[in-house]
Amino acid sequence: MNSNARAAASALLLATILLLAGWLAGRTGADILPAESYAANPIDFVTRTEAMIAASQVGRTAEGMPVVRPPPGDVYVRVRRWEFSPALELAPGQTYRLHLLSEDVVHSAAIGDAEVLLEPNTVKVVTLKAPATGRVRIQCGEYCGLGHTKMIGSIEAVP
Ligand code: CUA
């Protein structure tokens, strides 16, 4: 690499850092942060999700999906065409770690102002502090077939 190319590369890196810093500073509330990812055994993941549902279910949505109110901490969400399951009720101001795993194709989870790409077999963990009231947007941001535009989950802060 000659010095001009090096200078250009340095400028590009600096611009990227500044953009990232600006994005972080501009985040509203900064209460949602993508954290780590890990390779998943899908069967273990489903087992953990089912255990959470069995322990914390409070009802069902109109579509028949379980609604859970898990304790603060780790929460497991199955992602597949075209749903995020289960629906979540969270305690205002409490912090949760959402573990998301796609069971079929590539999806994404746009949660509040953060978005994580969800590839099969890799769990993404997103830290979320529940707002005082209302819903947190969660929807798929990656085209995944006919039902993509309706792939919207449910996260609600409930005192
Ligand atoms: Cu899932 Cu688009």
UniProtKB/TrEMBL annotation:
PROSITE patterns assigned? COX2_CUA
GO MF annotations in UniProt: copper ion binding; cytochrome-c oxidase activity
SUPFAM superfamilies linked to this entry = Cupredoxins
Domain Cytochrome oxidase subunit II copper A binding, by residue range, is: 70-159
Please provide, in alphabetical order, the Gene Ontology terms of the cellular component aspect for this entry.
Answer: membrane
Tell me the domain of life. Answer: Bacteria
What protein is this chain from?
Answer: Quinol oxidase
Give the source species: Paramagnetospirillum kuznetsovii
